[in-house]
TrEMBL record:
Keywords: Membrane, Transmembrane, Transmembrane helix. The chain crosses the membrane at residues 6-33, 45-70. This is Putative membrane protein. It comes from Streptomyces griseoaurantiacus M045.
Amino acid sequence: MKIDWAALGSVFGVSLVVTVGLVGLFTLGIVGLTKKESARGGSAVLAATGAYACFAACAAAVAYGIHLIVV
């Protein structure tokens, strides 16, 4: 049995980058919702829109991952 270390390293690297990216995106969504509470007027709408966009991108990434596993 021979292990392809280059392929294993590339899978590890990609999964690490995607995981850190998703956690960062979700964190930005939470920060945006927190800023919405203290903001007023147009900036509150902008913060809420950005937060919901971050959450939608996270949901899309999770749905794509599930699609890759199932299909």
